[in-house]
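FIELD: query
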Amino acid sequence: LTRHIIKPTENDSKDAQRQEKSIKQFQKHEERKKFHKMTSQTQNYRIKLICSQHGTELFEILVVEGEIQLALEKLSEWACPRPVEKSLLTLSAEAYVQPEPLGVVLIIGAWNYPWAVTLLPLVGAIAAGNAAVIKPSEVSCGSASVMEKFLPQYLDPDLYPVVTGGVSETQELLKLRFDHIFYTGSTAVGRLVMEAAARHLTPVTLELGGKSPCYIDRKCDLSVACRRITWGKFVNCGQTCIAPDYILCEPSIQSQVVDEVIKCIKEFYTDEPRTCEDYGRIVNQQHYRRIMALMEGSAVAYGGDADQSSCYIGPTVLKDVTAESKVMKEEIFGPVLPIITVSGLDQAIQFVNEREKPLVVYVFSNCKKVIRRVQDETSSGALLANDCLVHFTIPALPFGGVGHSGMGCYRGRHTFDCLSHLRSCLIKPLSMEAVNNMRYPPHTANKLSWARFLLLRHINVPKLWRVVQMAAMVGLGAFVVQVKIQSHATCKRTL
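FIELD: result
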């Protein structure tokens, strides 16, 4: 792995350096184009290997293709220097932020959405000009094998190698020094990744999870709310990091919530979800046993049927769940939806705040004041009102957690900035040295007064330029008017 595509010698001339830069930019552009080509040419093969065509394309392929198209359209804007405000002291200088590649990025993907959570960071890494090591999850072995086969056909395998394998291979990778590590997965493994990165002072982006709460206001449209919650909870068999983990509602509407959720389950997955091709399975036996153990001691309002041989757990709704219930001790990450009753919004907010900060807080209400209170009085990676999951589809919104649910964010430009070094640049002329006398010894009260004036007066250059333009236009207009008046006066004298 190399930091740069071409390494110059110390004696290279300026022309050679410019040529080298052009070659590097061309090669980076070609890598981006090849990656975009891969997403279309191998799509049918990938979908056939993974699962049902429409589900995979909707939840994984489309979002990756959209991210690539956005990067290609906006790359010149993202990568260009970003001017910043200046003080009077630096008014004659150039001050800007210049994004530059970090170097080599390690991307450790997850198994629940193996394409989206692995390739989305890769899009940003390539756009930012980095090399990357891609480590797909060994749990989703089918997707990992397809990545291992196809990525080298479209991307330089020396710059973007795919490393398959399990825990031991990941541990060996983490012993190496990278310029950034991007990890998606559990909080427990996230701690290990951060510990390994700390040995090399490597920055990390951790996209973790947590128990994302969903508060339902009793005055909202329960039919629509439960329809959207049911979809968000049971898509991918509940194995979504931003799925609603549990519902908080008042006791008076619990029965109606249960009925509406059951109605939606039957609409989406029929009376026999086991035979519905849009309803998935738990990824392996280990997670199957974990989820089944979480349901112990809770009252099942619907579902609960399971088949260990096929890792099938039917859509399940639990009622009258308490904070002490086993299902509330960890993130469920499965098709089990507990309902906890609270006295109202105050208790719901208190319940959320007594626990670790989740990846997202959901609130369903027609009242803007209720939504505003949840937004102002809780903390989470994101807040989504009156829907589930869809904030992930907006690349302009940074996606990430806070505290226990992760650190750092990505999507669109946020990925580009996350995987770039935003270099501060100040280019000053060697003239106007008299202005600098105030900083040189001997220091006096008069020099301090000038320093205070020059340093604390910030100049908004675009605004100043608009004022100058306006003043010039006013001056030009006054000049034209004056010329016309004089011309008119001259004509009168002539007559």
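FIELD: remark
The first helix runs from residue 14 to 41.
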